[in-house]
Write a structure and sequence with these properties.
475 residues; alpha+beta; Phosphorylase Kinase, domain 1; Aminoglycoside 3'-phosphotransferase, Chain: A, domain 2; 5-stranded antiparallel β-sheet; two-stranded antiparallel sheet; 16 helices; 9 strands; 50% helix; 11% strand; globular
Length: 475
């Protein structure tokens, strides 16, 4: 039996709303799911023990964001998609306020692999990977063929043009007190290059490796997580699955780290009859990194203001720099200079600050992970990784920030008394006013250099970091 606080209310719901449920035996929260909670439910049924799945809002509530549709609407989307031939689990029951559990729904439990890194690399999935990009293209074409008026989805979802979607995302970031020049630069580039979409369709908006389920024989078996769906340019979905964040280190396989562009396009065209323009998809690939850069920062906002302030949220927020380096690689490839670590900590202390941090990191990655399972073990890994970021910042951060200030001072003709934060804000305001030449070599150099060096602190193993280094070596 689980000690989760809504165990008993869930038991009442299951025994009254699920026809063959005799009792709730166990409830386990699964790892991952930073914006939503996922639980595996074990019930006693007419055929013995079986599993169901609970998808619940973080902390039991819908998180208010411009892109979130709410779990009630997500359940409707899944039901409609399943009825239209999209691979979906069956939704059995949508929770109400009277249930005492929070917002969410109960659905069919499907067996399969959903972890993106395993889908991209696990040997036992090698056979299905050859056709997976093609299958993804076919499935997206099925989603885009759903008649939003006949199904009533047009009454539930907002419609966004490319420019509107850029501005909505940019507005969300601009509401936070953080100057991130590469985000503002990319927003201006996206607005200047917005495509004239010739179709408006249902857009899943989070169709990527990590939100699909596969098995060893069929390949793709389910499409998951419809929480940000809208009506708009269907090529957004094709660009998103190609975004580097979801390649899981396999940057040379652009479709989810397992397939090629052309296989995705061929699958889509075979199902839809619509000819894909690769440049149109590339635009949405840039947007994908921009959108997720802002989305990652949103995790820090959620940590500060929302329920369920887990250790996972600030860790994900630091991934914004990964997305920004992907924007650099797509828009501003060129020479960079790596800043070597210069440990300025007092090595006469016993123990040093580094040693204190290392001891806690090793405890989390060793004892805690070895003695725990499931979500607790997962969060111990996340916490240890966060300490790694702190260690790298202590070793490199001062030198990196001095170098960034020098670049900004030259770019903005700053006074010696200007602080780094003030200079970042000055550049950000100029970018927002569109008073900066986006092709200025000094601006491009600053953005490349500052973002690459930030990633060297946040996640030097990220594939986009190596991509930037490779671009330097071949520029």
């Amino acid at each position: 039996m689980s000690n989760i606080e809504f165990f008993e209310p869930l038991r009442s719901v299951l025994t009254s709303k699920i026809p063959d449920c005799k009792d709730l035996l166990n409830l386990e929260r699964l790892s991952g799911g930073a914006s939503m909670e996922t639980y595996r439910i074990t019930i006693d049924s007419d055929v013995g023990e079986r599993y169901l799945c609970l998808r619940r809002g973080s902390g039991g509530v819908n998180r208010e964001t411009p892109s979130a549709v709410g779990l009630d609407t997500e359940a409707v989307l899944m039901k409609v998609a399943r009825a239209q031939g999209v691979s979906e689990p069956e939704v059995f029951y949508v929770l109400t306020a009277d249930d005492g559990i929070g917002v969410g729904f109960i659905m069919e439990w499907l067996e399969g692999e959903t972890l993106g890194a395993r889908i991209a690399r696990a040997p036992e999935l090698g056979a299905i990977r050859n056709n997976l990009a093609f299958q993804c293209g076919q499935e997206l074409a099925k989603i885009h063929a759903i008649d939003t008026e006949a199904t009533g989805l047009n009454l539930l979802l907002k419609t966004l043009s490319p420019a509107e979607y850029v501005n909505e995302t940019w507005d969300r970031y601009r509401a936070w007190n953080t100057p991130q020049p590469m985000i503002d630069y990319t927003a201006q580039w996206l607005l200047a290059n917005a495509p004239a979409a010739d179709r408006s369709c249902l857009v899943h908006n989070d169709f990527r490796n990590g939100n699909i389920m596969v098995d060893e024989t069929t390949g793709l078996t389910a499409v998951l997580d419809w929480e940000t769906a809208h009506i708009g340019d269907p090529m957004r979905d094709l660009g998103w699955i190609c975004t580097n964040s979801w390649r899981f280190g396999n940057r040379h396989l652009p479709v989810g780290g397992f397939g090629e562009y052309q296989d995705l396009f061929d699958g889509y065209e075979s199902q839809s009859g619509y000819k894909v323009d690769p440049n149109h998809v590339k635009y949405w690939e840039v947007f994908g990194s921009f959108w997720w850069a802002v989305g990652c920062l949103g995790m820090a906002d959620h940590y500060r203001t929302g329920p369920d302030a887990t250790v996972e949220r600030p860790a994900i927020a630091r991934r914004s720099s990964e997305c920004q380096i992907d924007c650099v690689n797509l828009l501003l490839p060129g020479p960079i200079e790596e800043i070597a670590a210069a440990n300025q900590l007092d090595q006469y202390d016993m123990p040093t600050i580094e040693e204190l941090l290392e001891s806690v990191r090793d405890f989390l990655h060793g004892d805690v992970m070895n003695e725990t399972t499931g979500r607790t073990s997962f969060l111990a890994r996340v916490a240890g990784n966060s300490l790694e970021i702190v260690l790298r910042d202590l070793q490199q951060g001062s030198e990196i920030r001095l170098h960034e200030r020098d670049l900004l001072s030259n770019l903005l003709s700053a006074a010696e008394t200007d602080e780094l934060g003030d200079l970042r804000w000055r550049l950000v305001r100029n970018l927002r006013k569109a008073s900066v030449d986006l092709t200025d070599p000094a601006l491009c150099r600053y953005l490349r250099q500052s973002v690459v060096n930030q990633v060297s602190i946040d996640q030097p193993k990220y594939s986009g970091y190596k991509w930037a280094i490779d671009s330097r070596d071949h520029s």
